[in-house]
UniProtKB/TrEMBL annotation:
InterPro entries noted in UniProt: VanZ-like
Positions of the VanZ-like domain: 15-81
Origin organism lineage: Bacteria, Pseudomonadati, Thermodesulfobacteriota, Desulfobacteria, Desulfobacterales
UniProt KW keywords: Membrane, Transmembrane, Transmembrane helix
Organism the protein comes from: Desulfobacter latus
Source organism, top-level taxon: Bacteria
One Pfam family recorded for the sequence: VanZ
Official protein name in the record: VanZ family protein
Length: 105
């Protein structure tokens, strides 16, 4: 079971939480390229923490702040991957050169 397995003194399910949320900002920006990365990060962080917060209200689930941190860490890494993807794809150019490409940092 994932809650019994440890990697570097962390439960493996915390790593899984991060890996599940890592592609969310990249996929969002690929699908909706007009959104600035900071807005995507804020919405995704609210989603990640909110999903864990809903578990606090459910009697058969348990809130775990480490799960929320794992979700958030995955989203932050995903946002970093998206920034790298934009940099490699378009470069850090002037706004008139990148207009319409979704490079609003």
């Amino acid at each position: 079971m994932l809650t019994d397995m440890f990697v570097f003194e962390l439960r493996l399910d915390y790593l899984v939480h991060g890996l599940v949320f890592l592609p969310v900002p990249v996929l969002w920006c690929m699908g909706f390229s007009g959104h600035p990365i900071w807005a995507v990060v804020l919405v995704c962080l609210a989603l990640a923490v909110g999903l864990e917060g809903v578990q606090y209200l459910l009697p058969w689930r348990a809130w775990n702040v480490n799960d929320a941190l794992g979700n958030s860490a995955g989203l932050i890494l995903g946002a970093g991957c998206e920034m790298i993807r934009r940099w490699v794809g378009y470069g850090f150019l002037t706004t008139e050169d990148t207009e319409g490409h979704g490079n609003e940092f």
